[in-house]
Request: fold
Amino acid sequence: MSKIPLHYVDLRAFCYATEDDKRVEQALEHFLPEDVDLERTETTGHYGDRILVYSVRVERADELRHVLDRLAAGPDVDRVIDELDDRVTENTELFLSLDKQSAFGGTTRLGDGITFRGKLEAYPATREAAVENARTLLTELVSDSTA
Reply:
């Protein structure tokens, strides 16, 4: 895969008071190369409980490839390809929800806990063009990972 049709990928996870913040960090780091740092913001929930918000924006090509390789290694990538019409917005963004517990264990699955938002390149900037670019990208990733 020579060119990646993504401007950036944002990953975000919440760490609630009942969770171990180091484990949530480790879950997000599953998707990231070693030299990428997470941003950590502390906020307060409705009942005064502490919530940490971990987020990162990945923009460089090598870092994007790493994130996408992790995504393609999961068993749910074919499902994502089938559901692209529902996962790409009019603003050419691809949304996924990834399982935080699986990521902590070193695997990639769809689920709850980690939000993946990728800004797709599309010329013209239409939803249809973005869906096609995402389909091509993910299909190539799957074929590269099985080769």
Remarks:
- The chain has one domain: 6-146.
